[in-house]
Amino acid sequence: MKARHANKPYLSIILPVYNEEENIVPQYQHIVEAMQKTPYTYEIIFVDDGSTDNSFKLLESIAKKDKHVHVVQFRRNFGQTAAMAAGIDYSKGDIIIFMDSDLQNDANDIPLLVQKIEEGYDVVSGWRKNRQDKLLSRKIPSRIANWLIAKVTGVYLHDLGCSLKAYRGEIIRQVNLYGEMHRFIPVHASWIGASIVEVPVHHHPRKFGKSKYGIKRTFKVLIDLATVKFMGSYSTKPNYIFGGIGMILLFISILSGITVIAMKLFLHHSMIRNPLLLLTVMLIILGIMFILLGILAEIMIRIYHESQKLPPYRVKRYI
Question: I need a labelling partner for 20 at 20 to 30 A (CA). Which of 219, 244, 246, 293 fits?
Answer without folding.
Answer: 219
